[in-house]
Write a structure and sequence with these properties.
The complex is a heterodimer of chains A (about 250) and B (about 325).
Chain A lengths: L1 H31 L7 H40 L6 H39 L2 H7 L4 H39 L4 H6 L5 H27 L4 H31 L1
Chain B lengths: L5 H9 L3 H8 L5 H10 L10 H8 L4 H21 L5 E12 L2 E12 L3 E5 L6 H8 L7 E6 L2 E2 L5 H8 L2 E4 L11 H12 L4 H14 L15 H13 L5 E5 L7 H18 L2 E5 L12 E6 L2 E7 H5 L4 H8 L10
Parallel strand pairs in B: 3-8, 3-9, 6-7, 7-8
Antiparallel strand pairs in B: 1-2, 1-4, 4-5, 9-10
Helix pairs in contact in B: 3-4, 5-11, 8-9, 8-10, 9-10
The chains are: A mainly alpha (about 250), B alpha/beta (about 325).
The structure holds adenosine-5'-triphosphate (ATP) and magnesium ion (MG).
């Protein structure tokens, strides 16, 4: 009995310590955002890395999400005789929910995991130490451009997802279900809040992904096992955090 | 022996060409040849481009002859150190203890690394040599005790001050620690590009020279993954040398190299030392060979300093652990499974 309470306590302390370390890590990185030397080329390379890795899969996911939303929405709405609302229903779900969340999850799986593995390998091969010796701060040199790149890329990828997702819904509704294009498009009324929420979510998820994934890679334990463990836990933790924060943002801004 | 005129001596001293003076005094090159080399010596090329290599480029002296000469000079100085060890230290450990994963890896280390000398750290595998080296630049922080570099306690420095202190160092890591995403050339150029304001042209010159010195001229376009173990070690050595540091830490610079390259690296180390007078700390398993190469030896065992003394004293040590280690005996205080 006491043993299990002790274990519980130890785990809880471990979690709290980890959270503290993560917070300090982020604070340190953000502190470097506005400190020279700036390395715009590093930033561009990271944007390229995240964007290129994720773009194709995000487009693919977006098309099929649009298809399925349209299909399901059509059958549900037509039961109540309101299939004319299909356009807004698809647009609303894609922009407010599916666009940012699915983009976030895809980027986590595609770019985030690679990010953790890359930094983890640099850690175990002492490349981070080598940077430090040269008087270069690894957080500033490696982590900051990755976080900034994610903060920039995710909103862009989300916007692309939004557009392609709605297009997919349109194609399904008009060309496969036989709705008129005018009805689908005409009924869509999007306010700035919808797009705003999409962007707030995208930026938040970008922060979560880059923060968690760089942190896990940066503190990977020794050995190949350390890196694979770090990668797995980075993907799991950032996916969970994306879904949890999605709920809170949605409930706050509804 | 050729006599030195006073203004000749002054001009040689002004150009920091102690080697040049010694070469002339030993009759290896003439005063005229040295003067020509001095005229050609471009100021902006850095300390590495010293008179010896220019004389070689001019064809007044063979590369092998130069190395031989440098090594002889070095021997004289090394022998002098064996009789009268230097007093001044540059790195100092005071009661360092380090606990890693619950194990006491360093157990009360007191140590002084002499300034401007070559110090070798020897000891059995897993004895904490690499950990000791990492403490010298603050890559690891001691659990107890303090590390002083140039009289300043590393623990009291701010991040910025620590960065400044670190730029006086270069380190060759045991595993090389080359950046996988950069080519060999970019790896060697990296510290120059990121931490100095040198022009790309000067950087290219220095990188090419450094690669030539480690016998890898023309390999700049390759990537670390395409190199053999010995080659990546040499690239890492070039990267450590290219910044012309004040203190050079080498973690097993010749492990895994063939005997010819090993010898060449030893010459290069001696050559670099003679030209730049830096402080070197190197970890090596090449005993007793290494005693011909360094002024000072630190023997580590089970997290403690067994002995820290001029190399001849270690070579003749009565300590049973050191003797077993030097001879490579299976019997003795060090238990082999
Ligand atoms: N980062 C670390 N975390 C935990 N333990 C470590 C770490 N680095 C080294 N150790 C442990 O410290 C001890 C000393 O390691 P160190 O690398 O200094 O040995 P070494 O003397 O350099 O050996 P070798 O000659 O094989 O390189 C070893 O038992 C090693 O397992
Ligand atoms: Mg070692």
């Amino acid at each position: 009995m006491t043993a299990s309470i002790q274990r519980l306590g130890r785990t809880a302390l471990g979690v709290i310590r980890e959270m503290g370390r993560m917070a300090l890590f982020l604070a340190k990185a953000v502190g470097y955002f506005f400190l020279p030397p700036f390395r715009p080329r590093n930033l561009l390379r990271q944007i390229h890395f995240i964007g290129l890795r994720s773009l194709f899969v995000i487009c693919l996911t977006a098309v099929f999400s649009g298809f399925v939303l349209s299909l399901l929405g059509y059958y549900t709405l037509s039961r109540f005789g309101s299939s004319g609302l299909l356009g807004p229903a698809v647009a609303f779900s894609v922009i407010r929910e599916l666009g940012p969340v699915l983009s976030g999850l895809m980027v986590t799986g595609l770019a985030g995991s690679a990010l953790t593995a890359e930094l983890g390998i640099m850690r175990i091969r002492e490349q981070l130490d080598a940077l430090e010796i040269m008087g270069i701060q690894p957080v500033q040199y490696l982590v900051v451009p990755r976080i900034q790149a994610a903060l920039i890329s995710l909103p862009v990828l989300t916007m692309i997802f939004d557009v392609i997702g709605i297009l997919g819904g349109y194609v399904e509704a008009v060309h496969l279900l036989g709705m008129s294009g005018g009805t689908f498009i005409g009924a869509i009324e999007l306010g700035m809040t919808d797009i705003g929420i999409s962007l707030v979510k995208a930026v938040t998820f970008g922060l979560i992904i880059s923060w968690v994934c760089t942190y896990k890679g940066f503190y990977a334990l020794r050995g190949a096992e350390g890196v694979s463990q770090a990668t797995t836990s980075a993907v799991v933790l950032s996916s969970v955090l994306i879904l949890v924060s999605d709920y809170f943002i949605t409930s706050m801004m509804l | 022996m050729t006599a030195f005129s006073p203004d000749m001596a002054a001009s040689v001293a002004g150009s920091r060409s102690r080697i040049g003076q010694q070469l002339v005094e030993a009759g290896v090159v003439s005063i005229g040849q040295l003067q020509e080399a001095l005229r050609l010596q471009p100021v902006q090329r850095g300390k590495g481009d010293l008179i010896g290599s220019i004389l070689v480029e001019l064809g007044y002296l063979g590369q092998a002859d130069l190395l031989q000469f440098l090594f002889q000079q070095f021997r004289k100085e090394r022998l002098a150190y064996q009789v009268v060890p230097a007093e001044e230290g540059i790195i100092e450990f005071r009661g360092i203890e380090k606990i890693l994963d619950g194990r006491r890896v360093l157990d009360g280390i007191d140590l002084v690394i002499p300034r401007g000398k070559i110090t070798a750290v020897i000891g059995v595998s897993g004895g904490g040599k690499s950990v000791t080296l990492k403490h010298m630049v603050g890559l690891m922080k001691p659990t107890r005790g303090s590390v002083l570099v140039g009289g300043r306690d590393l623990a009291t420095l701010s991040t910025k001050e620590l960065s400044q202190v670190r730029r006086r160092f270069s380190m060759l890591f045991q595993g090389g620690a080359l950046f996988d995403s950069l080519s060999v050339f970019d790896n060697v150029a990296f510290p120059l590009r990121e931490t100095t304001g040198l022009s790309e042209e000067v950087i290219r010159h220095r990188v090419e020279r450094a690669l030539k010195e480690v016998n890898l001229a023309g390999m700049g376009g390759k990537f670390p993954d395409d190199l053999s173990g010995g080659m990546s070690k040499r690239v890492a050595l070039a990267r450590a040398l290219v910044t012309e540091p004040e203190i050079l830490l080498l973690d097993e610079p010749t492990a895994g190299l063939d005997p010819i390259i090993e010898n060449a690296i030893h010459y290069l180390i001696c050559d670099t030392f003679m030209r730049t007078r830096l402080t070197m700390v190197l970890i090596s398993h090449a005993v007793p060979d290494i005693f011909n190469w360094c002024h000072h030896v630190v023997a580590l065992h089970q997290g403690k300093v067994l002995e820290s003394a001029p190399s001849w004293a270690i070579a003749q040590s009565e300590n049973p652990v050191i003797r077993q280690f030097i001879r490579g005996d299976l019997e003795g205080p060090i238990q082999v499974i």
